[in-house]
Specification:
The chain is mainly alpha-helical. The protein contains 14 helices and no strands.
């Protein structure tokens, strides 16, 4: 069951790893904010349609969680995606993907700050080891290039922090299906992005894309919407519910490795130190999941006031079919 649960975040991070080079190519025709808004307007329509078919109109009700959903949608969807696209104007996809690999560490720190749950020393250490491996992959064993990242690096720090908060938030919606959580937070984030795009176009900070530009980036947009925004995010939130935020976040280490593999497919030839780095990352991720699996076999009773990541006990598809 746990191996099946791991397939969800794995699908998500592989999709996102491929997406960075794709988005970078689309940004030559469409401004970052407009591209992100167009992507999530389409994704939101798809998600709402699926939610209505599966769970009915009642699933659109926010109840007393409207503010929390709005904040998570703006911070996670709008914050992460807009800042990432802006960063891609200042750095190569590999550099941007490197910062995504800090998600496991930052997610554990967010959980510590929010819930008072200290990171498990071994998992935190393995996250840092995996990050070290990613650094070798992306930097060729030298940190010289990262010192020139500048504004793009600051944007990615904010993006990753936003996604870590969103990921932690998903673990607190165990009574919602991943489809419902994804859809409602996507709607909040999309509304924020649409308002920001209208404002940015109005003041001349960017220009609304022409029809020819949207047609030119249609293949990239299709991938980013269907796989990157719908399938991947649904898979990610399912993984968070089943594995917990801290454990699911470990898979983010594979994003830059996947991006790097795409570059190899396009003709890039890696140096030996980069191959070693990829091996370190994968080994650390496997070790972290083995440790997590071993600990879950031993039943324990949380102490008074303890905060734990809720784990889904049913298949989201089965919930949707009810």
């Amino acid at each position: 069951m746990r191996s099946r649960a791991a397939s969800y975040p794995l699908l998500a991070v592989l999709s996102w790893g491929v997406m960075f080079p794709i988005l970078a190519s689309a940004l030559t025709r469409v401004d970052p904010l407009n591209l992100t808004t167009a992507r999530y307007l389409l994704a939101a329509v798809i998600l709402v349609g699926i939610l209505l078919l599966r769970e009915g109109a009642g699933a659109l009700r926010l109840g007393r969680r409207a503010v929390e959903v709005a904040v998570l949608g703006v911070v996670g969807f709008a914050g992460f995606n807009v800042l990432t696209n802006l960063a891609l104007e200042h750095a190569a996809p590999q550099q941007v993907a490197l910062f995504v690999a800090t998600t496991p560490v930052i997610t554990q720190l967010v959980r510590w700050a929010r819930d008072g749950v200290r990171p498990k020393p071994l998992l935190l250490a393995l996250s840092l080891v995996a990050l070290l491996g990613v650094g070798l992959v992306i930097t060729h064993g030298s940190l010289h290039g990262l010192g020139q990242f500048g504004l793009g690096g600051l944007m990615m720090v904010g993006a990753v922090l936003g996604w870590a908060i969103y990921t932690h938030g998903a673990s607190r919606f165990g009574d919602w299906s991943p489809l419902r959580y994804t859809t409602l937070t996507a709607l909040a984030g999309t509304a924020a992005m649409l308002a920001a795009s209208v404002l940015a176009d109005g003041i001349g900070w960017q220009h609304a894309p022409a029809a020819a530009d949207l047609v030119a980036v249609a293949p990239q947009l299709a991938y980013a919407v269907i796989l990157g925004a719908v399938v991947a995010v649904l898979a990610w939130n399912t993984g968070v519910q089943r594995l917990g935020a801290a454990n699911a976040a470990l898979f983010m280490n594979l994003v830059p490795v996947t991006t790097f593999a795409v570059q190899i497919a396009r003709g890039y030839r890696p140096a030996p130190v980069e191959v070693v780095g990829a091996a370190i990352t994968i080994a650390a991720l496997v070790a972290a999941n083995l440790v997590t699996r071993a600990r879950t076999r031993v039943p324990s009773v949380p102490g008074p006031g303890a905060v734990t990541d809720p784990v889904a006990v049913v298949d989201p598809a089965a919930v949707a079919a009810r």
